[in-house]
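Troubleshooting log. The previous structure file for this entry was overwritten by mistake, so regenerating from the original sequence record. Sequence copied from the archived sheet and checked twice against the printout by T.R.
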Amino acid sequence: MTAIHWSKAKEQIRQLVAQPRFGLFSDLDGTLAPIAPTPEAAAITPGNRQHLQDLAAELPLVALISGRRAASLQAKVGLPGLVYVGNHGLEQWLDGKVVGLPQAAAHRPALEQAHAAIQAILPPGAVAEDKGLTLSIHYRQTKDPREFMLTRAVEIHNIARQHGLVLFTGKMVLEVRPPVEVDKGTAFSELALENKLTAALFLGDDISDLSALETATKLRSQGIAAYGVGVQSEEAPPEILQQADYVADGVADVEELLGFVLMARKASST
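Regenerated output below.
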């Protein structure tokens, strides 16, 4: 399947948005916020932030599902009325605090040991970020990111495996996670079902968003009109556009899409 640009499917999107139980789901980095040299430097665009704020007042559910820690996600966006899911579905921001899955927390000692071992082999420019329930090894700032992947990824994979953990890849990042069957897709599905949604749209740009894009297809087979938007960029993996239903051409185009969703929602309620 090849995704089409969302502007060529406005009527279908309009029909989705008009359903009373329509929910919006999105990743943050690379989708609502441009990719930055470091996670700390990333910032949601003012336009996307305003759209989220307005949509939260119109929709039964607006949820952000990110690889960031839930607290970092909430702090970066800072809007009330949104659901913040972090660490690829392993934790959520609830009532002003982070609530993590106990089955993931049980692997904390293994993560600490893996973190120490990984730190010892990292070259200058690479950073191992301890996110509590997962580890992120950022290598965008290394002298040669491609060389890093060729020489260090296998070592990091072996360290993760030795500690009973699992390694995932993303845009200039390696993710070490506990062996728990939770990801952005399971988080998407659970929120859609819990909130009794009849329609949904998920936006994402990276490998970790594939599970959510795949979940959109599964939800359709369960009677929920869920569709996925792949956000295109120079670093976007080709699988994203193969799995998505629609495509947006970068963060600025996501602003256009969210603006259209907001307009369509308001028009449906008049």
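Residues 4-100+182-268 form a domain with the Rossmann fold fold (CATH 3.40.50.1000). Archived copy saved in two places this time.
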